[in-house]
Amino acid sequence: MNMTSPPVASKSPLDLPKAIAHRGLSNAAPENTLAAIRAAHAAGITWVEVDVQLLGDGTPVLWHDATVERCSDGLGPLTALTLDEARHLDVGRWFEYRFSGERMATLEEALVLLDEFEMGLNLELKLSPGQAAGPLIEAALPPAIATLHPERLLVSSFSPEALRLSRERHPALALGILYDAIPPEWQALADELSAASLHADWRKLTPERAAEVIASRRHLLCYTPNDATSFASRWAWGISAVISDTPTSFYAALNDAPTMDEPGQDSDHHAVNHSHEEAQP
User: Fold this and answer.
1) What sign does the dihedral 164-154-281-205 (CA atoms) show?
2) 241 neighbors 9 (Cβ within 8 angstroms)
3) pLDDT tens-place string over residues 160-172
4) What pTM does this model have?
5) Which helix (H) or strand (E) holds 221?
């Protein structure tokens, strides 16, 4: 397959492409796995977004949900597991039989792979209800900062607590504030955090709010559009990047090239698994 080079969103300390692979290339491989990162790299994607949270023994792993049911053959809360117990879960077969035996990825493993591929990372800090931000930040951010160049690392979260603590401990880190819909009072928190970016549900973003963010000279990212044609008119709002399950379709559209099929795009199983989650980062 001939791949076009992903265009860069704008000149800034962050070297963002126009399209970032959501939870790895989650339309082609099980989300938040090393397989999904490898699939993104194989498709010519230069950045991935993944979720990080802690197991019960304090190990940072790539995982989105508070429980393990949806994306593994296990049951119960993620925080009830040690790394050894988590390693016994199959986190690939739910997606496709050929991924049987895929194991839960530690953040360390993902960072090694991203560094090897020279890829960028949007690392979303996930906190389940009642969890403190400190332990996650202490476990996840130092290795990420040590492994990836600042141009290739963006840390985001819905949690103001997590973002404030991240800024306090890592003054130079690029931070992104996650919103469902960006509220009218967004700029106070963005200024407090010296936020590099705001991230919003693409279906709830208005042109007026987009103009405010762009005027503040921050990146504006949208999650999770998967139809480049439906999204096309929003580029004129100044959007920096999309976080998508089908990022190569956006590259193709932006380069006015024939649409490239995502690996596995013809699978009805994949469509069912992702349709109910399209609005979630």
Assistant:
1) positive
2) yes
3) 999 999 999 999 9
4) 0.89
5) strand 219-223
* 33-47, 160-174, 258-272: least confident range: 258-272
Using DSSP's 3-state secondary structure scheme, residue 149 falls into: coil
Dmax over CA atoms of the chain, in Å, equals 49
- The structure tokens 């987009």 sit at 210
- The answer, yes or no, to whether the previous bond of 224 is cis (omega within 30 of 0) is yes
Residue 266, amino acid: D
Q: 3-state DSSP helix/strand/coil percent for the chain, to nearest 5?
A: 35, 15, 45
Q: CB atoms < 10 A from the CB of 206, how many?
A: 12
Q: List the structure tokens of 237.
A: 């709002």
Alpha-carbon Rg of the chain, whole angstroms? Answer: 18
Q: How far apart are CA 46 and CA 30, in angstroms?
A: 18
Written as one string, the DSSP assignment of 24-86 is TTTTTS-TTSHHHHHHHHHTT--EEEEEEEE-TTS-EEE--SSBSSTTSS--SBGGG--HHHH
Structure tokens at 81: 């597991």
Structure tokens at 122: 């949007």
Phi, psi of 36 (to 5 degrees): -70, -35
**Which of 33, 54, 280 is CA-nearest to residue 179?**
280
CA 37, chain centre distance (Å): 11
pLDDT tens, position by position, 225-259: 999 999 999 999 999 999 999 999 999 888 843 33
